[in-house]
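User: What would this chain look like folded?
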Amino acid sequence: MSLDSLRDLFINELRDTLHAEKQLVAALPRMARAAQSPALKAAFQKHHGETEIHVQRLEDIFGTLGETARGKRCAGMEGIVEEGKEIMQEDGEEPVIDAALIAAAQKVEHYEMAAYGCLNTYANLLGEREIEKLLKQTLAEEEATDKTLTKLGQGGINQAALNARGDEEDQED
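Assistant: Here's the prediction, encoded as structure tokens.
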């Protein structure tokens, strides 16, 4: 695709974001299974449902624009998802793994917030008010998920990771 106009860039970024969201639809159930904290499991499960809605919104946006809803390989999200997979394959203390899963998930959320922030700006400049509303709604949901993850980390998971057996051994040395 040639990027000759802001609309071209908008479509290109929508395709990239669609692929990113579809990767997350596949990754979030694995993250939920890997989490030990019931609250973290629930947060991943809730966001999985939201992510499925995000995919549907993007597909609706393509329809509104008269474009085919197809993704374009999102290498950025592939890398972030791959990092998350590596964490899930690690051996370690459960609270430490949960803290690492929160960090991985927050990288995802920050990537998505950047993408939706740009898409929102483009929709605004292109005069696509209905699309802009949908993108703002998704951006707000991504921000809320990020805040939930922060609260989970600060609400005890990070402290439990600090108190994990491995840290006690390090403190004795």
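The helical segments are 6-34, 38-65, 75-89, 94-125, 129-162, 165-172. If you want, I can go into more detail on any region.
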